[in-house]
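User: My advisor asked me to double-check a structure prediction for Protein YhfH before group meeting. I don't want to rely on an old file, so could you generate it fresh from this sequence?
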Amino acid sequence: MIQSSVEFFKNLPPKQCTECGKKIEEQHECYGNHCDHCLSGE
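Assistant: Sure, here is a fresh prediction for Protein YhfH from the sequence you gave:
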């Protein structure tokens, strides 16, 4: 059975920052892989 694209994106696991491992608060299909904290260098 073919899954709809909406269901596919809804079922993706939360993204994690590749720097610190924290959950990234953004859309899962976004290309970013660092959280805001690591991006700002704080």
